[in-house]
Write a structure and sequence with these properties.
With about 300 residues, the protein is an alpha/beta fold. It is about 25% helix and about 30% strand.
């Protein structure tokens, strides 16, 4: 089929690669280059980098709804458009352009975790299962009819980074199956049950702040959800400390939350509102992330020391 692909982050690259290999993709639509790093120089999105390396035309519209982009899309004459984490809302006149509509890959089992951060939210909520949904876009926020779904377990040590990588591959495979059904005229779309819907929001840097009065399980899930960004953080010895990997220790201790209860060779146990958080990897300001064992070789941490909320 003739397809225009919409997608911006690395999560979309496996789907872009898979669709290009099987269909006639005429162009990639992605968000504009954004400033990155200390230099703040504009950097291309991962999908754009892949597309340019493979000779695929790229367009990065600053505006979508002034008629110009709609005219461009009509000229491309797509039979269907594919959307994977494009990151912008598409209004109905654009959705109406392709005969088979816009097919979206969403990284959750819709209607659970609609919106901008389904992977982070699933981990932070402590979900044990998530998955991928292939759906047809409508004017709502991930409210369109579902074509296919596939579930996968969330491992106890999964982070947003590791789960994103796995769902990106599963999503690409499921997308190809969905496009095959559409091409064969065999696609059956099912409405979502709105009464079961939950909605996520875009993650912000403040979402990585650790509140030590929360339970050890909640803090552990926050740490996992905040990898690779914004990385869970708190204050230790007057400086911001980033926590990269933890474990839950269920045994309670009679010290205030945030207090170091035990220092072992490979981990530091910190009291939480319920249970303890075993810190396995952390990062001091201006330093690289390191295991707790390596960190303790150059930094003193003693029982009674305090990890504090920002």
């Amino acid at each position: 089929m003739r397809i225009v692909f919409f997608g911006t982050p690395a999560l979309a690259v496996p789907s872009l690669e898979a669709v290009v290999a099987r269909h006639q993709v005429t162009a990639l639509v992605c968000q504009p280059d954004r400033p990155q790093g200390r230099s703040k120089r504009p950097a291309p999105p991962p999908t754009k980098t892949w597309a340019l390396e493979h000779g695929l035309p790229v367009t990065q519209p600053a505006k979508l709804n002034d008629g110009t982009f709609e005219a461009w899309l009509k000229a491309e004459a797509p039979e269907v458009c594919v959307v994977v984490a494009y990151g912008r809302i598409l209004k109905q006149p654009i959705l109406d352009v392709p005969a088979h509509g816009f097919i979206n890959v969403h990284a959750s089992l819709l209607p659970r975790h609609r919106g901008a951060s389904p992977i982070q939210t699933a981990i932070r909520c402590g979900d044990e299962v998530t998955g991928v949904t292939i759906m047809r876009l409508d004017a709502g926020m991930d409210t369109g009819d579902r074509l296919l779904q596939e579930s996968t377990a969330i491992a106890p040590d999964d982070t947003t980074a590791s789960l994103s990588d796995r769902l990106a591959v599963r999503g690409a495979d499921l997308l190809l199956r969905g496009l095959d059904l559409i091409a064969a005229g065999e696609a059956t779309f099912r409405p979502q049950d709105d009464s079961q819907a939950t909605v996520t929001r875009l993650y912000e840097k403040a979402d990585g702040q650790i509140r030590w009065g929360a339970s050890a399980r909640e803090i552990h899930n926050l740490v996992r959800a905040a990898i690779p960004w914004p990385v869970a953080h708190c204050r230790f010895q007057g400086e911001v400390c980033r926590i990269h990997r933890t474990e839950v220790v269920d045994e309670p201790v009679e010290v205030p939350p945030g207090t170091v209860a035990t220092v072992e060779r490979d981990r530091v146990l910190v009291a939480a509102g319920a249970g303890q958080v075993a810190i396995l990897m952390l990062q001091a300001p201006g330093k690289r992330a390191m295991t707790t064992r390596d960190f303790l070789n150059g930094h003193a941490i003693n029982p009674g020391d305090r990890f504090e909320d920002l």
